[in-house]
Amino acid sequence: MKILLLEDELMLQSSIYEYLDTLGYKVICFSDGLEAQKDLNTNEYDLLILDINVPNINGVNLIENLHKRNIFTPTIFISADVDIDTITTAFSLGAIDYLKKPFHLKELSIRIQKEMSNIKANQTIHVILSKNYEIDLTTSSLYFNKKLEILTNKRLKIIEYLAKNINSVVTIDRLRECIWKHEPVSDATIRTEINRLKKDLKENFIQNIKGVGYMICNNT
User: CB of 156 within 8 A of CB of 179?
Assistant: First the structure.
């Protein structure tokens, strides 16, 4: 796994780097948000670990800039900031976790291992969505009790995108960017389309995370 670490406290940055390096992760370190953004313009990562309060471009703004370019790399925020608005913003941007400083390095490794499990699950060709629903991501085919279900193209794309991000919250903005491709579509229109999708389905497995977005949670 290739990880970008953005942390301007150099002692902490070094500690995290050395610990993750011993676990076999490839870690590229930055202490400046602008430098990290420049690197992300040309390089891809499996995971971002971002401090929020760093020079030039903070961690939150960095993610916002990446989203404008349709880059949605899984992100763990690390920060001493425990303001609820900051935490809410982080998760609304699709953060998979938020660690408050100080934290134990073992705790960070546990969060990373969890994300690795999610990545492996998302690479599965057949994704189980509920008791009776599954989707074949190679053919974009939705099945109910092994029988093909027919949906409109837009609704099928929505459920496919949620399936690729199973057990993670997908925001309205991400749906707009990835499904509507920046069409001038309102939040209300997106919510209406998802509500129609849920009515089309025979099981209710798409969860509405109020004020954040939607997710399919499958604990099977």
Answer: no
**pLDDT at residue 119, as a whole number:** 60
**Confidence (pLDDT) at 90:** 80
Res 91: pLDDT:
80
**Position 99: which residue type?**
L
Q: Tell me the Cα Rg of the chain.
A: 18
| Inter-CA distances, 106 with 19, 81, 112, Å | 9, 21, 10
pLDDT at 205 (0 to 100) = 93
Residues belonging to the chain: 220
The low-confidence residues of the chain, meaning pLDDT below 50, are none
* Reduced DSSP (H G I as helix, E B as strand, rest coil) percent helix, strand, coil of the chain, to 5: 40, 20, 35
Predicted local distance difference test score (pLDDT) of residue 66: 86
The helix/strand/coil state of 191 is helix
Rounded Cα–Cα distance for residues 94 and 151 (Å): 27
Domains and CATH numbers, the chain: 2-121 (3.40.50.2300), 124-216 (1.10.10.10)
Cα 167 to Cα 21: distance, rounded to the nearest angstrom: 28
What is residue 26's predicted lDDT score, i.e. its pLDDT?
A: 93
Tell me which H or E stretch contains 123: none
- CA of 125: how far to CAs of 46, 82, 139, 161, 187, in Å? 19, 39, 9, 13, 30
Phi-psi region of 46 (alpha: psi -120 to 50; beta: other; left: phi over 0): alpha
- CA diameter of the chain: 56
CB 189 within 8 A of CB 144: no
